[in-house]
Amino acid sequence: MYFIVISFILNFxxxxxxxxxLKLINLKPLQSRKNQYVSMLxxxxxxxxxxxxxxxxxxxxxxxxxxxxENSLNEDLKRNAxxxxxxxxxxxxxxxxxxxxxxxxxxxxxxxxVECIHLSLLLGTTLKENLVQLSASLRIRAQLSIEESxxxxxxxxxFPLVFFIFPVIFILLVSGFIQDFISTMRF
Length: 187
Prior knowledge:
- By secondary structure, this protein is mostly helical.
- The protein has a domain at 47-166.
- The chain has helices at 2-17, 27-56, 61-71, 75-89, 94-101, 108-123, 127-151, 153-156, 158-185.
- Helix 2 runs antiparallel to helix 7 and helix 6 runs antiparallel to helix 7.
- This is Type II secretion system protein GspF domain-containing protein.
């Protein structure tokens, strides 16, 4: 029993002496960036699905894009799409306003969607099929990102397992032997 108490006191002293920080503060910004990445993927896929829904209802691409902009819940995506609509209302064609709205400051997934729409309009390919494929690929990327972060969770558990759980289990298993050994040494 004394051995367990002494080992806990020694662990406490070692942790305080070496100033080991167990909060893992550096992982939080990375995790929040990853969550923003996944949420942006899903928001862009939902935006594309809203465009597809309006295209299926018989609207043209401009009205579908405008309705998807109004119904979008993501503020960054809505801001970028409104910039495209402002360019269109200033007299540019819809294809030119799409091309001009692509910039490095906006979201890369939004840029990918706009490039897909612009190329479909420019080349005359079917817009619905291209948008369906793009939406599916964005959702697959989001699912893969989620699965990747889930697969990293067991690796993060190795540190507490090795440094805290195994020594405590060892102490609990060996404490009976140590007590018997001490009692036999007394004669």
